[in-house]
Amino acid sequence: MKQYIIKRILSAIPLLLIISFVCFVFINLIPSDPAEVALRVRQIPVITEEMIQEVQAELGLDKPFLVRYVNWLLDCLRGDFGNSYVIPAAL
């Protein structure tokens, strides 16, 4: 029985990785630029290309796709799901 449970848990790991990769791909297919959205949430009146590039570097959006996926996956495993731009940080 113990071997069966271990085998099922180990067989679930690849499935979870595939599901997380598909979710990450869908998140990145959203047509809006996350850096621009972050700047708009901060209520900056004039958004320049330099500001967008700065926020992209701050958020890690300037890195290659697979590097961002690995960083996102490691952050999720640590319980770090990022900053919320909807709910205020100080509650």
Description of the molecule:
By secondary structure, the chain is mostly helical. It folds into two domains: 1-30; 32-91, no CATH class. The protein contains four helices and no strands. It is elongated, with a radius of gyration of 18 Å. The model has no long low-confidence stretch (mean pLDDT 87).
Which stretches are poorly predicted, pLDDT < 50 over at least 5 residues?
none
Share of β-strand residues: under 5%
Number of strands: 0
Taking the sheet with the most strands, its summary is: none
What is the CA–CA distance across the termini? 46 Å
Mean pLDDT: 87
Tell me the number of helical segments per DSSP (H or I, 4 or more residues long): 4
Gyration radius, rounded: 18 Å
- Structural class based on helices, strands and sheet pairing: mainly alpha
Run of helices and strands: HHHH
**Helix proportion:** 55-70%
Number of domains: 2
Q: Which geometry do the CA atoms define? A: elongated
Summarize the structure.
The chain is mostly helical. The chain has 4 helices and no strands.
